[in-house]
Amino acid sequence: MSVVVDDDLWSAIGDPTRRRMFDLLLADGDGTATSLSEQLPVTRQAVAKHLGVLHRVGLVQVTPIGREMRYRVDDAQFARAVAQLALVGATWDARLGRIKQIAEAIQRTKEQ
After folding, report:
1. Domains (ranges, CATH) in the chain?
2. What are the helix (H) ranges across 1-112?
3. Contact yes or no for 12/18 (Cβ under 8 A)
4. pLDDT tens, 5-21?
5. pTM of the predicted model as reported, rounded to 2 decimal places
């Protein structure tokens, strides 16, 4: 079973601050760098940079509203990330199943 992994996507959400931001966007529906920075222990500028990373990998869409940018989760890209994670999980389940088979075969050989 071969899984194509989007390294940029997983690198982007590998950062704990970006994951927290993404969780907030999922929960709230949308947000700005200002509104998100009020809920996080980082500056508005840092939030804006993190949101830029999430935007570059397609996880969030941006809409300008006045002087601010409003960010919301891109449902299609999020669904792709979830599907990719499910494939990675299935791959590891198969690998672990194979390791279990090998370990059981070794144990049976030792018992004989």
Report:
1. 7-111 (1.10.10.10)
2. 7-13, 16-28, 33-37, 44-56, 75-111
3. yes
4. 688 888 898 899 999 99
5. 0.76
